[in-house]
Design brief:
The protein has about 130 residues and is mostly helical. It has one domain. The chain contains 7 helices and no strands. The longest helix is centred in the first third of the chain and has 26 residues. The radius of gyration is 22 Å and the shape is globular.
Length: about 130
């Protein structure tokens, strides 16, 4: 006969304890997710921006990606796809394009506190317009 399963029973307590994830385990999951994202972005950047990537080398490219993630996060851009687009813009306009006085449009758009997904789309449209005018 199986043991009862209700709050306070040994079986219930054992089931709950099996679901506890230690902070160390969460840190390992987070680290693996970061590495996976970085790996995908390295491949992406090498495919679409081979010249820029060739001058950096992989360790500096990974640092470039981490910097891009941090900068994007300061603007509330956290979705992987949007962060990747932000890093693409860094590859095109420079690491600190968001504060470059020659690219004031970027800072204005990024300073707008609205839907961050819409902001990145607006930023890309403005970047394409800027490139067309060059």
């Amino acid at each position: 006969m199986s043991q009862p399963w209700w709050p306070g029973s040994f079986t219930f307590l054992r089931e709950i304890l099996m679901l506890v994830i230690r902070q160390q385990q969460m840190a390992a999951f987070a680290q693996a997710a970061v590495k996976s994202f970085d790996d995908r972005v390295v491949i992406h950047l090498n495919k679409f921006f081979p010249e820029q990537c060739g001058t950096l080398g992989e360790p500096q490219l990974r640092e470039f990606i981490r910097y891009g993630v941090e900068r994007a996060n300061t603007y509330g851009i956290v979705a992987e796809r949007d962060v990747c687009k932000y890093i693409d813009l860094m590859a095109v306009f420079g690491r600190d394009f968001d504060t470059d006085p020659r690219l004031r449009w970027a800072g204005v758009i990024l300073g707008t506190k609205q839907n961050f997904g819409a902001n990145i789309q607006h930023l890309i449209a403005a970047a394409q317009d800027h490139l067309r005018r060059l």
